[in-house]
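Annex B. Sample input.
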Amino acid sequence: GDVYKRQKQSFMLTNEMKGADCTHLFKSAYENRYTWESDFSGYEGRCSWTDGEREIKGSFCLGQDLKATVKEIDDEEMHKAISSQLWEVAIHRVRRSFTQTHGQNTFTYGNTNEIGSEIIVGGKNEGDKYRVKDDVVTMVYRHIHGNLIIILTEDVTNTGNGYLSKSYSSQYLDPISKKNLKGKSFYKDNFIPLSKGGPWVLSSRSIHQESSEGSIINKQVFSFSDLKSLGSKQG
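Annex B, continued. Sample output.
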């Protein structure tokens, strides 16, 4: 009954606290995201892509500088797709302090729903919003490069040293009309630690869209295997 009581209490609390400063809540969830240690040395392995009909395989290396090199894949589009998945994962693992990222923003409580407590951003990134639940950022509503992007996280992997989003969707909207620019994309990510203490890296990512009838379309799976740390070989 304790957990339920606590949940109920936190629901009541947040609705009374509408408009109150909640920087601490957001900072805690921000710092709970899994990021790589500063001595991250890069890693390498095999990579493949499939849409269920054709499969393309190659090898890759992600350096300490987070630059991805993909080899053995001639198809330019696939080469780019695999590189960009690796880069996108890496860029989110870079540790930047809360002050560096959000120092010019303010955070206040909005409402609370089943997705979490709404956090309304003021200051530099005014117009952005987040939701947080159980120390996890469950919704991102951000204006990026002239688009509005909404990311909803449903499930996470707990590394013991921060969380990684495991099951989530993303949607691009026109910031003015709020019209959908492309279909909603659904992601399932699997991460594994390269060695006992990490770093944790992506081992597979599946992405699909859903049609308006709810059937799965455009499913693609990126896989990364035989993964090993570049370690001291670089030195």
